[in-house]
Amino acid sequence: MVGVSAIQQVSKARNGLGAFILPCKRVTISYCNFGGSSAGVRDFLRLRLGKFAQQYPSVEFHILEKPGKHPVLFGNYSNDLTKQICVRKWNIDVVENKLKLLLNASGKKLSKPKHTVVSQNKSVRGIWSPFYVQPEHRFKI
Amino acid sequence: MLASNRSSIHIAKRFISISPAISKINTINNNLNNNSVNHKFKFSYENAKNKQINQNNLSLPENKLDFLNYNNNSSSSSISLLSNDEAKLIPSIVALHARLNLPKNYPFNTLVKSLTCPTNEFSNLSSNNQQLSILGSHILSFYISEYLMTNYPRLPISILKSAIDSYIGDFSLYDLAKNNWGIEEDLTSKLDKYLSNEPEIFKFGKLRYIRKVTNPEINVTKYSNDQNSNTFELSKAEAYANSVRSIIAGLYIHSNNNDLIIKNFINNHILSRQIDIESLFQFKESGKLLSKILKSNNLQPPVVKLISETGRLSSTPVYVVGCFSGENLLSTAEGCSLREARIKSFNKALKAWYLYKPLDTKLPSDEGFNGMFVDQGEKFY
Description:
The complex is a heterodimer.
Chain A: E1 4-6, E2 24-31, H1 39-47, H2 49-55, E3 60-65, E4 72-77, E5 82-86, H3 92-104
Parallel strand pairs in A: 2-3
Antiparallel strand pairs in A: 2-4, 4-5
Helix pairs in contact in A: 1-3
Chain B: H1 2-8, H2 24-34, E1 40-41, E2 53-54, E3 58-59, E4 71-72, H3 73-76, H4 84-87, H5 91-99, H6 108-114, H7 130-151, H8 157-168, H9 170-180, H10 190-195, E5 210-211, E6 233-234, H11 236-253, H12 259-271, E7 281-283, H13 286-296, E8 302-310, E9 318-325, E10 328-335, H14 338-354
Parallel strand pairs in B: 5-6
Antiparallel strand pairs in B: 1-2, 3-4, 8-9, 9-10
Helix pairs in contact in B: 6-11, 7-8, 7-11, 8-9, 9-11, 13-14
């Protein structure tokens, strides 16, 4: 159309507004079958993993044997980032809590929020203008 | 009435093909060569690459207008990619099925097929997502354009196209597939897979395509031993987008004619994404356009009046102007010069016109849809 041209745009994701998809897509549990530091993880794999994994059908659980290494939990997220937690010497309960921590994370790097509200939308109110003030109350030079 | 008409319609044999794009030279040659009825046909939905099907592979219905019963045996007779039970063994496929909250009757091997872009290995129509993605793109464009046309009935066609593209263009669907759904592409080589003890079948859980190399490195010549491979090359965004389209087409096929499933899926995953339609507009000579619109609606021509100003002699003056049509204030705008404020006010007035949004809209695919207000458009064009 004459006079009106279009600028290309890419839609932005708003996860949770329609469907919510867990950002964590894969969890990898590495352990040693012999080492004492993996005792808690081995307990977890033996006693709890089956039920635990059923609660999170949308997440892949990979079990990786790394002989002679301390046990580590890895979380892979849909933003291509990976988080890892070393669980050496930790007991079964701590391992489960650390796994929950990974599963519930957004995958973003931890940072201190600078603003109290973070929004994709433009401010409804708009920027402040001196003309909001009544003419008789305006500052006069 | 209609059925009786149908039976009486006589269709010449030459015109059986659904697509008008059947090449005439070929059929003539065939007739000359073997004098037989071995015509070649092209289904319009098959693909855009002029792939033709021999009549031997095509089972035609008795009633030529019975479009549902045209069958292409050349693809259905071949073996499909993976069986559903095999596909169930791939963790990433099972996880993707759960992530998308797909219905239980959605087979896992459809997901595998959706993630398989055409390659030399999977060039068979039934083993790759080529046809699924075409169906999916049509479904998507139907639901998205329906939503935009009813919610913004006055959008100019260029903006409407751009808005549809920003919902279901390659880059948006790429972002959806990669950063939301978590689909991964298969980047590892066969050797890597062998060394990592990964089962052969696991590669089907990832997106596989032939990467288009647009800018090869300097002093590097692109080598390919197969000239055919060029036809399958896809960019990263295209490959991801096609997988999304195919998954949606699969949902449509397995939804048992329940449109609500596909509609909710598109609402939840694609229409829930954010686009800013207001910022799609770019006006040229907005004042002329505005006065044309006002004239065609029997309103008075636009007049811009200064409402307030500050610092006219300073380096940063601010002017607030209003665009009036007779008594009616169309828009207000502020600017650093009178000219800027004036043009901004025109743009705002135009946007207020074009972005008109009726309340409580019902989509044509909704139940109880009673027609809608359709704008007369720009009569002056």
